[in-house]
Design a protein that fits this description.
Blueprint (H helix, E strand, L loop, with lengths): L12 E3 L6 E3 L5 E7 L6 H9 L6 E7 L6 H11 L3 E5 L6 H10 L5 E4 L5 E2 L3 H11 L3 E5 L2 E3 L18 H10 L5 H4 L2 E3 H5 L11 H12 L1 E4 L5 E3 L5
Parallel strand pairs: 3-4, 3-6, 4-5, 8-11, 9-12
Antiparallel strand pairs: 1-2, 6-10, 7-12, 8-10
Helix pairs in contact: 5-8
Length: 236
């Protein structure tokens, strides 16, 4: 994996009609999807967390859902510094579910992850989980321990459950921990597996649970021993 790692200034790209249309000469290993609406309060911290990752072979697709605050200005500022950013602004607000689906539709990486604008992750998050999935073809997704913003971060608060074993056991594991399943939806996922889920873009309460269960029906979902994800409470 280290042989494939690239620093952002080594990634070649072509640009036309401004930073909204950017194409890399080679497909990245990971696509990060960041749907956002009025995220000016938290997006800088989240973007800094993205670009601090030790695994650098990724593209970041930001889909701005017609924000009315300074989100666009901040995104353009970062896009000028790093060619891995693909910033796209929706002409009208298309709703959160369709905005999530839009980022997935643009993905070129073998692996995909949604990264909300109030989330942060340890610098080794991508490296650990890419390595895990590349070594285990029967796993469709992987993530690190996580906790919600506002918790202390003590080990007793970390969510660490996996969905492994036969399908029935994976389902049981999910329902045993369904109220702590946030990290599964925001895990690193094989792009092709996620695209096969017809619930992406649907708008109903618990759609994230539907996606999690689809993943569990498609393969195992692992939890690496280290790394960390902290999920914010402000939403995207």
């Amino acid at each position: 994996m280290k042989g494939r790692r690239k620093k952002y200034d080594e990634l070649r790209c072509t640009q036309s009609e401004g930073p909204k249309k950017m194409q890399f000469s080679t497909a990245p290993v990971v696509t990060i999807g960041m749907p956002v609406y009025n995220g000016e309060q938290t997006i800088r911290q989240s973007l800094d967390s993205v670009f601090a990752q030790t695994f650098a072979d990724f593209e970041l697709i930001i889909s701005d859902n017609a924000s009315t605050d300074e989100t666009e200005t901040i995104c353009m500022e970062y896009a000028k510094k790093d060619p891995r950013i693909i910033y796209q602004r929706q002409p009208v607000n298309i709703g959160a579910p369709k905005n999530f689906k839009h980022t997935l539709a643009q993905a070129r990486g073998n692996f995909f992850i949604w990264w909300s604008v109030d989330d942060t992750r340890s610098v080794d998050f991508l490296e650990l989980n890419v390595s895990f999935l590349e070594k285990r073809k029967d796993y469709v997704a992987a993530t690190s321990p996580n906790y919600m913003e506002g918790q202390t971060g003590d080990k007793k608060n970390l969510v660490t459950f996996s969905m492994v074993g036969e399908v029935e056991k994976r389902f049981r594991s999910f329902f045993d921990h369904c109220w702590q399943s946030h990290g599964i939806f925001y895990s690193l996922i094989r792009t092709d597996s996620l695209r096969a889920c017809t619930e992406i873009g649907a708008d109903y309460f618990g759609v994230d649970w539907s996606v999690d269960l689809f993943l569990a029906s498609s393969g195992k979902v692992g939890r690496v021993d280290s790394g960390l994800a902290v999920f914010g409470s402000k939403g995207m």
